[in-house]
Design brief:
single chain; about 325 residues; alpha/beta; eight-stranded mixed β-sheet; about 25% helix
Length: about 325
Amino acid sequence: KKEKATAVIDCSQSEKSVQVKVLLNDDVWMIGANAVISSSSPSTIYPWFYSTQGRYEVFDGFYSPQLNNTRAAVIYYPPSYFENTLKTDYEVLIMHDGQNLFNASTSFLGIAWQCQDTLDTLIVEGGIREVAVLAPYNTPDRTDEYTYSYDPTEQAGGKGDDYLDFLFDSFLPDVEKRGLFRFPPSPALPSMLGSSLGGLISCYAGWTRSDRLSAAGCMSSSFWWNSEDFLHTVLKKGARPSATPPSIYVDSGTAGPGQDDEAETKAVLAKLEGQYGMKLNSTVFYYLDEGGEHNEKYWGDRFYIPMLDLFPSEAYLSGMP
């Protein structure tokens, strides 16, 4: 049953915003972060009271005219999605390698990130805004699709821009056309996150398509690709788009072959801070996973960190989730 209620809250003129929590029938408190409402204009809250777990579903048949192939995708619906069907103001996070994120039976080497556990906990406890994940599976052309330039050493790469065109111009519209997710009439910009080559293409998308992304999460990114082409070519002087760049999260481990690109990641971070003036823990975020290796286990274990950095609830930032 869909119900709407209106309430008036008196507050001091000096207060720009107020945190509230809805109580249903004097019995059940809303779940998730406190709602933050403006003291100067009407605000709308979409609470939910019972669902503490989201759910994910796999859908087939997403065709890419840019790449001439078809793939499946997994969608994670946050806890409120099926309880409060009026709600549409979700953060949309595009992730790569969809088969590795939620289900060990489809994941590489049988180890999944278990993103649903991380997201459910952070959302219900009020640490982050509600995030929905839309994640196409990879294909046998993964290396070519997740790289924007040809690497002569690897003898591969270069379809990254076509892949990004697929995500923005085909995949997201297809999800909406098929009625698989509730988008608002004027949706906010999505975010993007991946690991390894998926981290590389996410950073590339964030830097070159800043008008289409609000945040880019780049975990254990393969910044070594094509002789560190991202550092030396993409981040060259003048390459920064005129639009405000999205928030960027980068990380690495310290163990395994190449120490999980620790040095290459630090070089990218230094350029973002030094040449482009991005502020650590404000517009760019960094985490070093001591002992972390280049695989799904470590990415899943620290997935909560970019979520808190890129999607913190206002209540969490104020210390009152």
